[in-house]
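Researcher: I'd like a structural prediction for the single chain below. Treat it as a standalone chain; there are no partners to consider.
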Amino acid sequence: MLRILVLVASFVFAVSAQANLLVNGDFEDGLNGWGSEFGSVQVVNKNGNNVAKLNDNNSSGLEVLWQSFYIPTEVNTVSFSFDFKFKGWDNSRHQEDLAGSLLEVRDGITSWWDWSPWSIVEAVEFDLNSGWMSFYGEYDVSNIVDIDPNGRVFFGIFEDSGWCNDLTDSVLFIDNVVVAAVASVPEPGTFALLMLGLAGLVFARRKAV
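Model: Treating it as a single chain, here is the predicted structure.
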C-alpha cells in the first residue's frame, strides 16, 4: 500500500514540478549567464543572499540586465517570477527614474509597424520604495519558433523621458528570477480514473490476502 501511495505522489509531483529555463536565476554564481548594457550591474550580498544590483550614477540614464534562453517547442505555457526592490529617487533636473521588466518570446509574428521577430509577453513597471516584492505570472507561448534562443528577460532602470539624457540615481535589486515550463495538470476525469485504479489495486490486494 505504501509503495502505491509513493508512486501516486511521485506522479502528482512530476506533473506539477517546474524546472528553471534560465541560468543562475538566484545570482549565487555572480552574473554568470547574464548580460548587462549601458550602466554597470553588480552582485551584492544581502543578509547572506546574493542579489543583482542596478545603480550606476555614472551612466547616461539607462541600466539593463538581461538573459536569453531556449523554450522547448512542446511547451505551451511558461511561468515568469522574480523578487525585486526598487529604491527610487532622482537628483537630476530631468524626469524621474522608472524601473521594470520585460519577458519576450520569438514567435515569428510581425506586424506592419514592427518587423521584429520578438514579441512582448509581459511588461511590468515596479512599485517605488515599497520594500521587497514578488511577481508571478503564467503566459501562453504556444506560437514560439524552434530557434535557440527564443526567449529573453530584461530588467532595467531608465529616465521617464524615454531617452537617455541624464543620470539614474535609483537602485534596483533583483533576485530569484525563474522562467519555467508549466506542466499541464491532469483533468479531473483523468485524476478520478487514477484514483479508481488505485482503489481497485488496494481491493485486489485485500482480497488476495
